[in-house]
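Suppose a classmate hands you a notebook page containing two proteins, each written out with its sequence and a corresponding row of structure tokens. How would you begin to make sense of it? This section walks through that situation. The first entry is reproduced here exactly as it would appear on such a page.
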Amino acid sequence: MCIRDSMKIAVLAKASIDPNLVEVDSANNVITEAMPLIISLYDKNAMEEALRIKERLGGEIHVLSALTWGPIDRRESEAENVLREIIAMGADNTHLIVDEGLINGDPSITSLALARLAEKLGGFDIYLAGEASMDMLSSQLPSKFAEILGIPVISFVKKLEIEDKRVKAVRSLEDVLQTVETELPAVISVTGEINQPRYTTALQIRKAFRKPINKYSLSDLGIEAVERRVERKAIKILPVERKRVKVEGESYEEMAEKLIEALIREGVIKPGG
């Protein structure tokens, strides 16, 4: 896969169900159909990084997305509206896969569809994605996507540099930072630490609604049959009972000491930590 003089950049973006507006039934099943779609927050970090790369090196940005929440007859237009937020940030082209075979699918299915879409569009020099979607948080898609395309992947990136067709990245791995390099093309998943996404103006949002969104089915991408490795039966809320620990004392100092002791017993804090 050749690297062009100016960068051809892909951003993998997802219209996620909003975890802040959870609705459940009497059996603690999450009613996903009743929850609105929003753009996954880490994907906005990916888009911001794409914009910064374009500003430094030139090129064009394509947003690749797949609708994974149903029902399609209602969610399709909702997903389009959600993607307008990414378009308003500065995407040059936007591509959305809409197919019943993707609804409630696992990351393997979504990764395959997005990889085939990337190939149909001629491939890209760099693929940027959020470290995880804000609804399912599996962090699997970037690696699966890269494996299908046969290119390197660097995950959990908090700092990114591109020079001489190579990428140098600092990975945030819980208690350690790791610096790695690879040649382009490559897939990069970014953390929320990498940047602060820019705000969009009302004018940019209005203009975004005038831009077309290119749509595809699985058959358009040469995928005739979908093998589901995971079948999602339900998404449940696990109830958590409060311990209702009451801290009492004759002074604030005494209560503070008792609170610290309780936190140490629960393993929330460590002495001297």
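The notebook's second entry, a different protein, reads as follows.
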Amino acid sequence: MLGQFLTFIESQNLFSKKDKLLLAHSGGKDSVALADLLLKAGFDFGVAHCNFSLRGADSDGDEEFVRNFCQKNNLDFHTIKFKTKTFAKENGISTQMAARELRYKWFSEILEEEKKYDFLLTAHHLDDRIETLLLNITKGTGPKGLRSIPTKTEKIRRPLMFAGLDDIFNYLKNNLLDWREDISNASTDYQRNKIRHHILPELKKINPGLHDTQLVNLNRFESLNEIFEEKLEEFNSEITESGGIFNIPFENWKNKAGFKLILEEYLKAYGFNFHQIEEIFSFKQSGKVINTEYFQLTKSGGQLFLSKKKESNSTEELIIQNPGKYFFENLEIEISIIEAIENPDFQNSHIAYFDAEKLVFPLKIRKWQQGDKIVPFGMNGTKLVSDILIDKKVNILEKQNTKVLISETQIAWILGLKTSDVFKLKIPYNKIFKIILNFI
């Protein structure tokens, strides 16, 4: 098995003898086998052990077992004790999920603080990967889920992915190695154990070479995922953002192969699911909206616009009594008085300048309304704000969020779009109101 181990590490380009490795060691058979292989192969590594306080004296016994192993082999030893059940209850998650979050957060902290380590090693093996694949398929998954547990990520390496449980058990027996047994591994209360103890044995009756078959399948899925990631990266590069609104190029992509999967992968972080993705494709009218708890998707003009949902208790208008910093919905507004300026930045749409003698406090910021008019800069007569939005080709979602600055009864600025000629600066530029918009 040592030869297979070294061949797998080299073929997958996991790490080398020059690297300093951190092994996540539970004391179980998988960790013991990996630690022994690392020792025999002459790799430089330290050990990290998590005591999850879930099995009383047995958990403490696991910690002592790993500690003794490190002392015997002169290895750096890191350990921590978690109140896992308390963390799970406080965060409303399962004990297994809590343990996973706690350990990976701690491992990341070690890698960050102990700069000497290049990679974290975990003892996941082929059976773990097959079980995860079956779980993912059973619960529903996309291309990334078909990949199951990846052999490597940026900082994590899993060098036992070539070996099944039987291979690991035989290695331990042939090398007279002891390990700690977690009795929860035999319980079928956990979903993974149901697959391990009931589903996999039945599948092996159908295909005695199940491990070899699934290893090939997983390699296929890895290759498919590489194609998917390449397309996803291309798609992400075409998404633009302005004022907290993401413009998704739906029309350009809707007929491309696999786009529903790509769109699902991008939007799932915002709470959208595959059924909602399919609903988007059925939209015929512009202005249709789909919501999740915190976000909304609006379809308009062949594009999709992703934005945060407006809070139901958000104020309808902002009253500004004096210069200073103010917040309104997704805007941070800074108003200051400048005594003189030589070169105003008129090209920046997020900055506006006004004659301080004409702009009268209190100012008001609100959403634009039908019938609103402004005297555009450089003109004498008024123009409807709605016509300006059409001229500027403002999309439906941006239009819904467009705001105006009002001094007394006149609109001084369509925020980010156009200022009024009524409040323009006089030359020389003295005593000026400068207003800066920052989207948050």
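A careful reader of the second entry would note: DSSP finds 15 helices and 21 strands in the chain.
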